[in-house]
User: Which sequence fits this backbone?
């Protein structure tokens, strides 16, 4: 299995205390990462957003399903839980992630919310980080 802790420490030093807790899984880290991303959305901290979403997407792309599944259920499933941030969140979501997490959203949300998210994600270039951000 790939060493997610080393990658997390390098990319998101703000959460080093979470990474260093050996008894905590990547699920705990990804939930904390989402909280960090929420704060960054609210504060307009594009560097933090770039690093947070990059780590989540790195996990998503891992060939072993454990990290990929963890990113879906502990990060991406919750990206629209703070509904007022939906316009800020949508551009950060890669199409491949949306395709995989959408069934979870269907299960959790009323139809009206799903329609709104579909509208947001159908906008210009979903999955492309907003202007001014750079990929990791």
Assistant:
């Amino acid at each position: 299995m790939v060493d997610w802790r080393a990658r997390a420490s390098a990319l998101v030093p703000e959460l080093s205390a979470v990474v260093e807790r050996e008894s905590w899984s990547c699920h705990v880290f990804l939930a904390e990462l989402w909280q960090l991303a929420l704060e960054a959305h609210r504060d307009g901290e594009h560097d933090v957003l770039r690093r947070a979403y990059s780590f989540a997407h790195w996990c998503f792309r891992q060939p072993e399903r454990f990290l990929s599944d963890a990113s879906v259920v502990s990060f991406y499933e919750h990206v629209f839980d703070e509904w007022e941030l939906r316009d800020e969140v949508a551009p950060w979501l890669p199409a491949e992630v949306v395709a995989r997490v959408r069934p979870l959203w269907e299960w959790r949300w009323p139809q009206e919310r799903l329609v709104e998210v579909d509208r947001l994600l159908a906008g210009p270039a979903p999955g492309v980080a907003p202007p001014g951000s750079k990929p990791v």
